UniProtKB/TrEMBL annotation, chains A, B:
It holds the Pfam family AcetylCoA_hyd_C. It comes from Polysphondylium violaceum. This is Acetyl-CoA hydrolase. Residues 341-491 form the Acetyl-CoA hydrolase/transferase C-terminal domain. It comes from the Eukaryota.
Amino acid sequence: MHKVVEHGTKSLITSRIKRPSLLSKVITDPNHLIPYFQNGQYIGWSGFAGTNYPKVTPIALADHVEKNSLQSKLKFNLFVGASTGPETEGRWAALDMIERRYPHQSDSSVRKGINTGNIKFADEHLSIYANDLLYGYYTLKKEKGDKRKLDIAIIEATEITEEGYIIPGASVGITPEILQMADKVIIEINTSLPSFKGVHDLVKHDPPPFTKPYQLTRVDDRIGVEAFPIDPEKILAIVESQLPDNTSDPAPEDEKSNAIAHHIVEFFKAEIEAGRMPKNLHPIQSGIGSIANAVIGGLSRGPFENINVWTEVIQDTFLDFFDNGKLNFASATSLRFSPSGFNRLFNNWDNYVNKMVLRNQAISNSAELIRRLGVIALNTPVEFDIYGHINSTCVDGSKMLNGIGGSGEFLRNSKLSIVHAPSTRPTKSDPHGISTVVPFASHIDHSEHDVDIYVTEQGLADVRGLDPIERAKVIIEKCAHPIYKPILKEYLETSTQICLKKGAAHEPHQLDKAFKFYTNLVEKGTMRFDKW
Amino acid sequence: MHKVVEHGTKSLITSRIKRPSLLSKVITDPNHLIPYFQNGQYIGWSGFAGTNYPKVTPIALADHVEKNSLQSKLKFNLFVGASTGPETEGRWAALDMIERRYPHQSDSSVRKGINTGNIKFADEHLSIYANDLLYGYYTLKKEKGDKRKLDIAIIEATEITEEGYIIPGASVGITPEILQMADKVIIEINTSLPSFKGVHDLVKHDPPPFTKPYQLTRVDDRIGVEAFPIDPEKILAIVESQLPDNTSDPAPEDEKSNAIAHHIVEFFKAEIEAGRMPKNLHPIQSGIGSIANAVIGGLSRGPFENINVWTEVIQDTFLDFFDNGKLNFASATSLRFSPSGFNRLFNNWDNYVNKMVLRNQAISNSAELIRRLGVIALNTPVEFDIYGHINSTCVDGSKMLNGIGGSGEFLRNSKLSIVHAPSTRPTKSDPHGISTVVPFASHIDHSEHDVDIYVTEQGLADVRGLDPIERAKVIIEKCAHPIYKPILKEYLETSTQICLKKGAAHEPHQLDKAFKFYTNLVEKGTMRFDKW
């Protein structure tokens, strides 16, 4: 059992800095860092899925802005692996401190900033983003300093080794990449956490033409190092943090998500039976949310043994999965436990840490590795259309939810790509006002070419090998809610008749009516209607 | 110089079969093969981009169908790497012999069959298709025989080695995969061609969990074998062919395509200057058509030396590129030369063959290798929208052109992804009736997350690091034709105002008007109009 360290004594941080020469970088008051920050800078943070993000420095900056009424006057271009916490980026957004924020978030204030035109945001495939950041594609428009560098990186760590190398905490994200490309680095050592030494496998990216194969063929292979090197001259300061990650409890399973999980487990059994999948399945990628949790629950209660996981985020449900002996090993870029989940981890440290590894998101989401390992991808989209095109990001075509995240990398490259969602969602006036299955998705992140299996609580549509019209029939039949089935069928049939006459019936549409579900929703508060 | 073999003597085929025991499989009349073919079978052909496809057997089958009025009674599910020739699959389509045809074609009769609902067709990323075919995803619905096998593969080869291994001709495509999974194989040895021994690098795919890294870090690395093994018991027959590939001359460069090429060459110079690209660029992927040819022409006249190519198809223009000493090495899955181009190759064989290699399309289009090599992708789409979503396949949303091909694999995974197209195309009544830049693409194969650079003869839009609204402004400004600029600007501005009011302005759209370009085209023969 790993001892959880005690709080509040000065010696805590020095015990985590094993390289004596770096002790001189320790500062006790983060306000001393404020002068280094200037309007318009390009800043990188550690953090992914709400863990291991910097807290002390961003909060000190937010306090500074609030105290001195610097709202909209001290703004940053902020680059993080994925989401962090409401007390940091959420507060920055509320204080109008964010000019630009890539490539993923899940905070209500940030989301509001994006959708009101106040925060420039673009979502990008997480692994490609990590590479492109290093190539200088996100810093092209920098007005001051080196166009290929971030001005300051702020990272949370749990230890600095004798070599002066960094050991992150509960996530990796783009920490290795921002350590490579930042001009200056601030390190927050979180002494409320144990050292995560040994949990990570950190890889340096050598841009083309120097990129080498990732020599990884199993989820538990290690191809990197456990601590990431950093040029000591880059280190601006080291500060202590005892602030916890601001995580919440996992979304509970419900009836619909359990029905979805049941369809998926039955499908897996049939695939094994048909010889297309090994008995322990292929490595599983699982998203976040109630359906993802239900699927993991379903798998852990199912007849499968020695399951491996290759995913972005390890969540509370995986602890049960480990405990019942069915989960063999899990690889991810983030541990996103609830506070009680983290306690479970820390109290049984030795029991869990040998069964998992945290990697750069450039590795966890790498097309190369997802393809090679033959991953089974499971993702929850906003909606999908009858031909299988998928919207993962923009509600009603325009409003950003969280960003594409790893959905594209997993859906495109997995051996088996599955999307799952409830068949309807409620509006104010109609408990089934929004259909997940639509004639033409209002935003397309993943095309018909990327997904094999569509699941709702209604059923499972296996579209492998089908042409678009066959696909549409199966998706409507198996996935659409009974309320929307006749409406969708009529669209497909009428579109097919019209397009056949024109000799243009590969993927039949009526572009004058394709978005009627959405216009009806705006006008009448529901997607359902009587007449096309 | 490689001697082109003479025609018409029986000894030609025996000289190409180096394994004596296989000589007993040679048959002289392909009509003897007809009884092996039954309605509903799953058939694989060699061939890619119109070269190295089987001819004698498909033509004998077509003659048989025509002679015996078996149209629509002898139909096949046909799987090829990409396109073949009009005298084979085109004739099969015209004779209603194709039930299903995956994943790419470029023949007018096949296209007509697809768009009139007579041929089931689905396009798929070419490398993923090769894998999924082996996994049994395209043969799931087979009614007879092993659901994980093709019934018969028909391949063109240029030699059988002493070990009994196959040496293909001018393309590889999915030949290795169909040799792995076919129940029976017919081999057509084309003695009108030289043996292509030494030109190929053929890789066997081991499905997960046995897949290994592709140990390739340079375009000229070899990771496979020069001849592909085959179980001799699978060989139904070996027949001689002297029919040439039915290729045409390359599309000529024109004024618009030269303007596009100029923008791209200037951009490359600036990228090198900024230190984001080596002086010899990164390996180039180039499509087919007049713009692709103009770009290759522009590069070969440009200031770049020692260029490498990592692409699908090597075309006539590459011969000039080799000849002027600027092209160092080219890797592809197909040599698609015109008849005169093939003569140039055969007459200077030793000069060219050491500078190129042909690979499985699973390798040429592999995400792993495209990412690792840092490829520069250059593709011509049907259209793209103001936010950067791309239609590569379905005209007006419904009518299949050729299929997605490798466009998705190259655009998603390349270090630098470029699409290029003329800003307008003519309709009957308007020389600028169709705009390439539209408000919302009528079909989306590649999303905003996949492409860095958009080019028309009007200019080049570099959207790296931009958010959707910034991207739209640049794409409209740089790429749209002056006729369409004000129309598109008004759409963007009005949509932004409306969506800002709703707090939904990440990617502003008006879904009731998003497809007006297409409805206007149907009603008035042009996409242009005065009033939104």
